Amino acid sequence: MEKNNLADYLFEHNPQPMWIYDVNTLKFLKVNNTAIAKYGYSKDEFLKMTIKDIRPSDDVELLIKDVKETREKINITNKNWRHLLKSDEIIRVEINSHSLVYEGRDARLVVVRDITDLFNAREKEKKLISDLIEAKNRAEESDKIKTIFLATMSHELRTPLNAIIGFSDLISEDLTKEDIDSYATTINKSGRHLLSLIEELFDISLIESGQIKLNFEKVELADVLNEIFAIISREQKLMGRKSVKLSISSSMDTKRDNRIIVTDKKRLKQIFVNLLKNALKFTEKGIIEYGYRPITIDNKNFLQFFVKDSGIGIPENKLNIIFEEFHQEDAVQVKRFSGAGLGLSISKKLVENLGGNIWVESTLNQGSTFLFTLPLIKTDNDFINIKKGDSMDNISYDFSGKRLLLAEDDEPSYLLLKAILKRTSILISRAKSGREAVNIALSDDTISLVLMDINMPDMNGFEATKIIKKEKPHLPIIAQTAYSISGDREKILEAGCDDYLSKPISKTELFKIIEKYAKG
Asked: Residue 331's pLDDT is what?
């Protein structure tokens, strides 16, 4: 075989795509069979094309620049390019070329190696390394945040516990009434703070695990705003924010405005209370205003709720992280104002679960406005005017002649309930286990009401309730529970309980429950 014929044979049958192109016109002068098979063009099509036609459009400018810069080079090896097949698929290729004279023209011989799989593997490796570095940074940041959080929580838990234990020891000494009242107030305040922290931790855990269950119902907003006002007014006194003016605001221009929203009333109150507590914490004097207004988004009706304060404000670079778990705006400010950094995160997650959005607008040293939206149901009902609710704290209750069966195994809890009920003149029978509660309830016809602890030895409250209700279906049974986990409320009612009281039990709620059910 002659030399030229051998060269032509090796060119045509090379397993790698090969071609020769004119360095002046960039036109293909010759292509081998492998290139034709690989790129999808026929030989005639190739010979009417230039090397620009097999490059993505955004690579052409770079190609022309490269041709000019490498024109005088004899050999070019391992040049990495993107090539465009006739099918519009883009492949990654490695180019080796050699300058030559072909049919009297300055040309280059090009050998192409498809490195698409290798390139993708390298990119995956790069991404994996990048992801590992990012994960490492996130883990370090998470550890840092958790370390700060645990230190904060240790402080937040130990501080009220120190007050509770310390003043509890002192209160047994020979003290004046003024000292006793002062110590009792401090113990109560510290206990409420401790309870708030525990509830926040439970809420975060329940939300993250998907175990929080929402109870949607029709909610009259006037009632909600009034209940919130009563709660926050008490918080305001406890926090010593006498210089803060608290007010309710709403845009009620016509009687056709929407008045009722279908949502979870408990969670709506929780969101508002979290935001208002946050506003009180960072507003030592000035105003705090809250309320709502109807708005339309994408032809859908919503209520936009807001909490506006004239407090210390939030720096612009912190606005995007204040809703994150365990993040707090500033360590120095947090130490000054206290807090575990969970309230805003809980509020955000609850709002999103209720079908809305939450955000904040703030100017440093001028104040903040937290806003959130919830879906609205239109109604023709006239609005119930906002007015301050009556306080139940000073109402006297007389339950003379009524007997309460108190099923409670925990001695401190029993003594507390006994002390709360002492002035109502109600008669109390006690059961220390579920089985004992059943025996007393079934044998004593003078019992008007059963207050049933769910977690008791021997037999739990659910089982005891079912047995009692089977024999005495009309005897009211009220569960004592700290229901939070999904399904607990339903389990309580399915067991036959007529109602429930959430622990820690509110004195006012306890009296209202007894008044409602103890009719015998």
From this structure: 45
What would the two tokens of residue 459 be? Answer: 């037999």
Is 458 within 8 Å of 438 (Cβ atoms)? no
Q: Are 336 and 315 members of one domain?
A: yes
Residue 255 structural domain:
217-375
**31: its two tokens:** 């292509």
Question: What tokens appear for 362 in the block?
Answer: 């703030």
Task: Tell me the CATH number at 256.
Answer: 3.30.565.10
Give the type of residue at 302.
F
185/221 same-domain check: no
Domain check: are 172 and 131 in the same one? yes
204 Cβ contact partners less than 8 Å away, ≥ 6 residues apart: 325, 342, 345, 346
**Which DSSP state fits 158?**
H
Answer positive or negative: Cα dihedral of 350, 352, 353, 355.
Answer: positive
Tokens of 260: 């009722």
For 444, the token pair is 């004593």
In a domain, 240, yes or no: yes
End-to-end CA distance of the chain: 119
Position 327 scores a pLDDT of 57
The answer to whether residues 194 and 157 touch, using CB atoms and an 8 Å cutoff, is yes
**Eight-class DSSP state of 362:** E
The mean predicted confidence, pLDDT, of the chain is 84
Total Cβ atoms within 10 A of residue 306 = 16
d(CA 462, CA 225): 35
Residues of the chain with pLDDT under 70: 1-4, 145, 148-149, 152, 250-259, 325-341, 377-395, 482-488, 519-520
- Tokens linked to 361: 């607008």
pLDDT tens-digit map of 101-135: 999 999 999 999 999 998 889 889 999 999 899 88
Cα–Cα dist 501/278, whole Å: 27
Same domain, yes or no, for 96 and 138? no
Domain count for the chain: 4
Assess if residue 284 is contained within a domain.
Answer: yes
- Answer for the pair 348, 342: CB distance below 8 angstroms, yes or no: no
Output the CA torsion sign for 369, 370, 373, 378: negative
**How far apart are alpha carbons 259 and 171 in whole angstroms?**
49
285: nearest Cα among 234, 341, 245 = 245
Pairing relationship of beta strands 105-114 and 427-431 according to DSSP bridges = unpaired
CA dihedral 138, 140, 144, 149 (to 10 degrees): 50
Chain segment 300-336, per-residue pLDDT in tens = 888 899 999 999 998 888 887 888 765 554 444 444 4
CA distance 473 to 468: 7
d(C-alpha 45, C-alpha 52), whole Å: 14
